[in-house]
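INPUT
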Amino acid sequence: MSVGHVSRAFEAAGIPTVIVMSNVFRGRVLAMKPARVLFTRHIMGRPLGAPFDVERQAHVLRESLRLLESATEPQTALLLPDAYRTAPR
Amino acid sequence: MPGETFKEYVDSLSYGSRTDLLFKFLKNLPEEAAERFLQSLLRELGEVVDTGDLSSLFDLIYEAQLAGYSPPDEETRWKYEDAPFAPLKKPLSEMRVGLLTSSGHYVLGQPHAPPELAEYSQEEGTRHIGEYGRAKPFLSAVPVDTPQERIGVHQPGYDIRAALKDRETVMPIDRMGEMEAAGVIGEFARTAYSFIGLTSQIRLTKEDAPAWAEKAKTEGWEAAVLVPV
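OUTPUT
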């Protein structure tokens, strides 16, 4: 849960953060009380999406930035509904 | 192997004789659940042969990983009562935003790990994870104009195959650049960072993460996107 620790240090230093991660680690990171976290229904090691799935990667990042900007209180978490997929051909 | 139990087989997938970092979570499941998963995996593969539809297979792996990485509350090591929260002071479209990941990306030819771990290949690293767990965290700088072919990955904590094929799966440098171009963020900080997430959490918490936050501030970061694997 390294990034959870980094997030806490950044927030304490006054830098707002959003964590973008697979929902499979949900329990571990929520126990660390993160400021803002966007979860994806993606397989471990592919939090933004599959290789070359530019559309999904952009969507995840855009939603993460939206969460970063809109959250008004700590422990704001959002799970995107989209299931993992390979890049559309 | 002759005489090997199912439990021993499953355990060997997690930093054992059959290490498979995508499926190492099976070691965390009750034996019956691991058995059900493998049986379901074979069934879904049989379906894919006929339909080519991978969605059920992906769902099966995702749900099993979710179960495998959901520890009972009493086994959750890192729990905190406080929740540090820095509010945004202005719109993101006016802010410099940085990117930091624990994916172990680095620029080829540059130092990418503590000296005592630097000679290990990814595969060798999986045989020395105890050393990683004790090591001082190591932060790699990745200029955001670095082409994909000049970026490597070293992180024995996870299955790096997707990250090697396309860094954007976990280190979205190009996607962040697109957000800058679209005006969603004011500016993408010119140097992104990555570290080997499998590292000493004590050292990270007490020394390195606070130092990295100060470094980010000196580089003008006003917000950060953080990506674990």
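end of record. Chain B has two domains: 6-74, 92-227.
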